[in-house]
Amino acid sequence: MAAAANNPSGDSVASSMNDGVDEVPGRSLRIVNFNVHAGIDGWGRPFDVVGACAAFDADVLVLEESWTSDGQKGTADEVAATLGYACIEHPLASGRRAGPHPDANGRWMRSFDWRGASHAIYLDSERPFSQRVTSSARFEAASPGTWGLAVLTRLPVVGHEVIELGRLRRDRARRAAIVVRVEVDGQPVAVAGTHMSHLSYGSPIHFRRLHRLLGDAVGHGPAVLVGDMNLWGPPLVALMPGWRRAVKAATWPGWRPHSQVDHVLLRGAVRAVGGRALPTAGSDHRPVEALVALR
User: Listing from the earlier edge strand, what are the strands of the sheet with 187-195?
Assistant: First the structure.
């Protein structure tokens, strides 16, 4: 989830970097990032994550807030099995996911009610909720599970690793990046997926850590960093020097986006051919799509 915010950075995100991502000759790949909000809206009503991902037709797909109910196949695994992806997933927190709220209406959620007992997602493994929340009927009826991050790809995978970033004191989840090394026409490309914390929680600490550790992991080869950064573009590239934005387009909130918090960043011998925010697909974030080519 992204925190409610205006766009004080002055970053213009009213339109995408390109009108679309038409295919180009040569070595290129389509990358999509999608924060799926555990496959439910803010009231707990499910939406078709697999159908949305099928429409993206991505070579590499990064999913944040992927949910796995205890004892069941998770969101990312279901997408991978249905659409023919390899899936590398990493848990960031555990908690409960609620069912549809009895007072649900046509809005995506109750007006910015991120607190209290009307949650759709409760993450309490890293930071417990108050007794008022845990004793509520909605919390008690919610199903336990795991909330995490996944990188899915149809390209040959030659290796992967997880960069642990730890947890910020106010955060309800640990943070990490999954680095997956794929081959594009025989050339290795490192694709990293991440889900960063909020600026108000002290996320620059993690960005500095990510910049150092990810630089060590990817070396000087072509690399792509994808994820829900919970941060606007200009401060993001200031915190990640050497990385370039592939897409400039508003992604949040999904029903009327005014800010870009979901990004695709590039480093090394890889360039953006096109990029855009895709139409809302059920989450509070719009998917972001980039077509990138190797130089």
Answer: 157-166, 175-184, 187-195, 223-228, 262-267, 244-245
Strand positions, DSSP E, 79-231 = 86-97, 121-123, 143-153, 157-166, 175-184, 187-195, 223-228
pLDDT digits (tens, 9 = 90+) for 242-263: 999 999 999 999 999 999 999 9
Helix, strand, or coil (residue 201): helix
- CA-based nearest residue to 192, from 180, 183, 210: 180
Instruction: Say which CATH class 28-92+149-294 falls into.
Output: alpha beta
Does the pLDDT at position 129 exceed 60?
yes
Q: Are 288 and 256 in contact (CB under 8 A)?
A: no
C-alpha neighbours within 13 Å on the C-beta side of residue 94: 6
Q: Taken in order 230, 269, 191, 287, is the CA torsion positive or negative? A: positive
Domain ranges of the chain: 28-92+149-294
The pLDDT value recorded for residue 114 is 53
**ω before 253 within 30° of 0 (cis)?**
yes
What is the DSSP pairing of strand 157-166 with strand 175-184?
A: antiparallel
CA 150-156-161 angle, to 5 degrees, is 45
Locus of tokens 């989450």: 283
Residue 182 pairs with which residues in a beta bridge?
Answer: 157, 189
The whole-angstrom separation of Cα 282 and Cα 253 is 11
- Record the pTM: 0.91
Burial class of residue 73 in the structure, from the number of CB atoms within 10 Å of its CB (0-12 exposed, 13-18 middle, 19+ buried):
exposed
Percent of the chain with pLDDT over 90: 82
Query: Could you tell me if 155 and 59 are in contact, meaning their C-beta atoms sit under 8 angstroms apart?
Result: yes
Per-residue pLDDT tens over the stretch 27-38: 789 999 999 999
- 76 and 178 in contact (C-beta within 8 Å)? no
The rounded distance, in Å, linking the Cα atoms of 182 and 177 is 16
